[in-house]
Amino acid sequence: MSQKTRPAPPLETTHWFNTAAPPTLDGLRGRVVVIEAFQMLCPGCVSHGLPQAKRVFETFNGTDVAVLGLHCVFEHHEAQSPVSLEAFLHEYRIAFPVAVDAPDASAPLPRTMAAYGMQGTPTLVLIDRAGHRRAQHFGHVTDLKLGAEIMALIREGPAETR
Amino acid sequence: MSQKTRPAPPLETTHWFNTAAPPTLDGLRGRVVVIEAFQMLCPGCVSHGLPQAKRVFETFNGTDVAVLGLHCVFEHHEAQSPVSLEAFLHEYRIAFPVAVDAPDASAPLPRTMAAYGMQGTPTLVLIDRAGHRRAQHFGHVTDLKLGAEIMALIREGPAETR
Amino acid sequence: MSQKTRPAPPLETTHWFNTAAPPTLDGLRGRVVVIEAFQMLCPGCVSHGLPQAKRVFETFNGTDVAVLGLHCVFEHHEAQSPVSLEAFLHEYRIAFPVAVDAPDASAPLPRTMAAYGMQGTPTLVLIDRAGHRRAQHFGHVTDLKLGAEIMALIREGPAETR
Amino acid sequence: MSQKTRPAPPLETTHWFNTAAPPTLDGLRGRVVVIEAFQMLCPGCVSHGLPQAKRVFETFNGTDVAVLGLHCVFEHHEAQSPVSLEAFLHEYRIAFPVAVDAPDASAPLPRTMAAYGMQGTPTLVLIDRAGHRRAQHFGHVTDLKLGAEIMALIREGPAETR
Fold first, then answer.
1. pTM for the predicted model, two decimal places
2. Taking 50 as the threshold, does the pLDDT of residue C14 lie above it?
3. Do chains A and D touch (3 or more CB pairs under 8 A)?
4. Which residues fall within 8 angstroms of residue D17, CB to CB, at 6 or more apart?
5. Does A43 contact chain B (CB < 8 Å)?
6. What does the DSSP 8-state code read for residue C11?
7. Average of pLDDT values for C104-109?
8. Side-chain half-sphere CA neighbours of C149 within 13 A
9. Are C86 and C17 in contact (CB under 8 A)?
10. Contact state of B146 with D144 under an 8 Å Cβ cutoff
11. What is the pLDDT of residues A30-46, one digit of tens each?
């Protein structure tokens, strides 16, 4: 794990796809949360980050692990609009909930991306059952390491608070 | 080769990227032309078709072989606009000329795609030095077979007319 | 996990490579043990099983997880002799300890392979800190699932007995 | 092509597999010959060289292109005996003819490997229809380039002599 334990900032979003009831981190308390922060025109997100997030979604039980996508547009804003994102999610068969990170009119980075101090995309964030951020990986993390990190958080148990 | 020899229909386009002087098939007479027909949100195009076209562009001499991309939007029109395409080409480091296939107000397929009878994307078209269409591959074609097909057309020689 | 908890049969071996002090399962008590059962001329072992075992060896701390190779020759005995295996391990840069499963003069399968009821190679066996067999995967298991399974055993803790 | 045109040295061999009638380069005159020089315990041969040779064998017509394997043992001689090679060819489903390069009692390299001046394995040699060596690639060559090189030799035509 690459980060000290601290509460995860709330998600600030403008749109949600693949969900009738947009989730919040507070509402997901009790589950491990895996956030895949991406941009639809980021080659590393398309070839590695998102396929890995799909594997996490397919491997772990939804009662233990929630997977969320977060579309953090910090470049090519007009090219990566919610309309384009919706078609992208359809074509790439992404089934887990995906949010659009809320733009900040006064800054280049969208709000959640800035609050998390992300350096770019893809970034994978792990949040424990108590709502604390426990890891944040910019770029590539292996499936073996990620599987181990997720299970370590699962095994802390639902009753544990930090 | 999967098609009988016949003249290749002209390209009907609305935009060009990566070129100051939009090419025409007539102007490319004397060279073998490889056309990669794709959509920017088509997963098979992104993972296989376009990387293969890049390898063709990097492997063969430009005086023998011209590589062109053709953005044939037949679905998700609003999501795959020229603005989005431009960002896509930048992010995916596509350096060869790419055209937008001209939409047809009265039909679902764009004009060049329809004229070539393409069944979908990715489709790879091979045109010989005399301007005749010699092969059209829908879906996957191996690099070994494609390298052989291109060389067969190169070796027909510039003086040959059909 | 695909198997009920039960003590792992002891390893019956004739040779060890990559170790000055041949390990025993009893001696490894307190650690999670990952056994990669393979044959050097088994294509699936070479392309998937052994590279995965190398990743496990490189990813987890040796104080928590011991990785062992077990050469279970049940076909092509003359072709897969210890002399050939030694060269194989050198060429494939396999650094963890590897044993030769003891042949059984009266049966086609070597002794440890038979005791574990393995169906073929590659087979990956997981043994917990208490020396109990907890999983046995014949064929492919994903890195994500394996990483999670190993961590689940690590987190049971050294003091736990079963 | 990386080499000047010159006649290919004859193959000096001790064993042949996958053929009832061991071929000679003279007997293959009129066809393009692709020789994959390998060692069965060479990881790059197993993961890249031999699979590529299989693709060549499956892609081109046998009347135009002959594919031969050549087992050039220059290290681990005892480990890579003909007995081990035979099991290897079976397990890896290699169907084209494979020869064992003749050892030279007075030198470390086997005879054909030395005559061709090979630097190691895998090495891929291309011989034209007239029996002249036209290319020799040590290490990786892309499928696209190889497909083009083979077709260039095919198109020289059976009547052409050099």
1. 0.93
2. yes
3. no
4. D85, D86, D89, D97, D98, D99
5. yes
6. P
7. 94
8. 23
9. yes
10. yes
11. 999 999 999 999 999 99
